[in-house]
């Protein structure tokens, strides 16, 4: 275990590196229930997560040491629970900005928080919050980004990594440092209450925003355009029958 | 109900000035009578909590009439006990989960003693997983929402009897 810091920032002010852990989110959750809480902005970095969770097959496909998997702890008691989805937006934007600077404008945010490059998934985010009463005590933000893994199991489609696109490896510490800096900036924008700035930036980088595409909902396939993701995270799609609003499990992107 | 609770109940009844209290639960019935001189009780009857009919406990207060020396029982059905329970509500719209994943045991079950700060459920909204901690220590009296069902903001999730 070693400790490093990006001194002037809140995000990443304390970095704990573990060689092997079940999941960095679980590590943070356990630390909160047992000890004095780790400081606001602590990052837990794992070289290997053997039970990391992601949306894809509910297990994150990570070759040990090749990808960036970490969790960020934020003390969020000064934020409103009603603004939870804005934290998701802010983090998604920060990741997208970081990735875009490396791989170019193909970087996208797939609703609600997947890290995309063109039509391929490059990473994901898993946010877990601790709530007591009406207080949002902590947010634990797990992030996984495919960096130097070039080969993936055949049964996983639409997946890519930074090194696949660059045809060269990328330094994990450089990526982490840039991510911390950008997350620090966007968390600051959220804390300052600049929700419009967050809405605009999220929409601007949203995968398939305002493009005609096929979707599937309630067993039917239809064409529509994503026109908004509202404050609670619902997807607004303009169809021939007007604007329809969808929750996460109610709609599927076709051709993906 | 354990011995400790019964002792507390006896203490409560003797202090309260009523001379008989009956409590009936699913498999349990207890009547506590005191020998003290009946005192006039002005019972304020809280509105019944519609969502929890099973735990409605009947408190029967013997109310003597000022003129008549004989005790005439005027049963007043109250939810006095239920009113002492603490309701833990959903802090957001989402989906209610009783365990961290389908293959894991429930965080809490009816009858469990819980401590303030203990995680009692998850409310998931838009891939954000919210672990809800108990605000009080107590005993889970009732779980008011089914696993994996949608919940509204402020919807009651648990009834907890403080201890």
Highlighted features:
heterodimer; A: 256 residues; alpha+beta; BirA Bifunctional Protein, domain 2; SH3 type barrels; 2 domains; 8-stranded mixed β-sheet; 5-stranded antiparallel β-sheet; 33% strand; globular; B: 163 residues; mainly beta; OB fold (Dihydrolipoamide Acetyltransferase, E2P); 4-stranded antiparallel β-sheet; 10 strands; elongated
Any idea what the radius of gyration of chain A is? 18 Å
- CATH topology of the largest domain in chain A, which one? BirA Bifunctional Protein, domain 2
Largest interface chains and counts: A-B, 25 and 17 residues
CATH topology of the largest domain in chain B: OB fold (Dihydrolipoamide Acetyltransferase, E2P)
Q: pLDDT below 50 for ≥5 consecutive residues: which ranges of chain B?
A: 36-80
Name of the CATH first level of the largest domain in chain B? Mainly Beta
Question: If you compute it from the alpha carbons, what radius of gyration of chain B comes out, rounded to the nearest whole angstrom?
Answer: 19 Å
Give the uncertain stretches of chain A in residue-range form.
Answer: none
- Biggest pleated-sheet summary of chain A: 8 strands, mixed
Please tell me what the overall shape of chain B is.
elongated
Q: Assign the CATH architecture of the largest domain in chain A.
A: 2-Layer Sandwich
CA(first)-CA(last) distance of chain B? 12 Å
- Number of DSSP E strands of chain B: 10
Which CATH-level-2 architecture of the largest domain in chain B?
Beta Barrel
Sheet bearing the most strands of chain B, described?
4 strands, antiparallel
Biggest sheet of chain B: strands side by side, in what order? 3-10-8-5
């Amino acid at each position: 275990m070693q400790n490093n810091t990006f001194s002037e920032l809140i995000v990443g002010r304390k970095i704990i590196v573990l060689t092997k852990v079940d999941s960095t989110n679980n590590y943070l959750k356990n630390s909160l229930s047992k000890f004095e809480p780790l400081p606001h902005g602590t990052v837990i970095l794992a070289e290997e997560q053997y039970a990391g969770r992601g949306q894809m097959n509910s297990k994150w496909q990570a070759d040990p040491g090749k990808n960036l998997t970490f969790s960020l702890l934020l003390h969020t008691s000064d934020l409103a629970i009603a603004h939870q989805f804005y934290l998701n937006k802010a983090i998604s934007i920060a990741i997208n900005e970081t990735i875009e600077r490396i791989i170019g404008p193909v970087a996208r945010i797939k609703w609600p928080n997947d890290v995309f490059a063109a039509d391929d998934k490059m990473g994901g985010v898993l946010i877990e919050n601790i709530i007591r009463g009406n207080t949002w005590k902590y947010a634990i933000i797990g992030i996984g980004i495919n960096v130097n893994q070039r080969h993936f199991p055949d049964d996983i489609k639409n997946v890519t990594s930074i090194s696949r696109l660059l045809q060269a490896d990328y330094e994990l510490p450089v990526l982490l440092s840039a991510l911390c800096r950008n997350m620090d900036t966007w968390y600051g924008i959220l804390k300052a209450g600049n929700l419009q700035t967050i809405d605009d930036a999220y929409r601007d980088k949203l995968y398939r925003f305002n493009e005609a595409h096929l979707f599937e909902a309630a067993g039917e396939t239809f064409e529509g355009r994503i026109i908004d993701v509202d404050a609670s995270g619902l997807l607004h799609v303009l169809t021939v029958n007007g604007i329809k609003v969808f929750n996460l499990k109610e709609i599927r992107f076709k051709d993906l | 109900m354990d011995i400790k609770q019964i002792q507390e109940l006896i203490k409560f009844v003797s202090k309260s000035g009523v001379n008989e209290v009956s409590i009936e639960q699913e498999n349990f019935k207890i009547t506590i009578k005191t020998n003290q001189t009946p005192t006039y009780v002005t019972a304020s009857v809280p509105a019944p909590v519609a969502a929890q009919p099973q735990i409605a406990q009947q408190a029967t207060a013997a109310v003597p009439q000022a003129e008549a020396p004989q005790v005439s029982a005027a049963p007043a059905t109250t939810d006095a006990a239920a009113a002492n329970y603490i309701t833990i509500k959903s802090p957001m719209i989402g989906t209610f989960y009783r365990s961290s994943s389908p293959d894991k045991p429930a965080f809490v079950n009816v009858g469990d003693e819980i401590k303030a700060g203990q995680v009692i459920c998850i409310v998931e909204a838009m891939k954000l997983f919210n672990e809800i901690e108990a605000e009080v220590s107590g005993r889970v009296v009732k779980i008011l929402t089914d696993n994996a069902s949608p919940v509204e903001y402020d919807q009651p999730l648990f009834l907890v009897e403080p201890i």
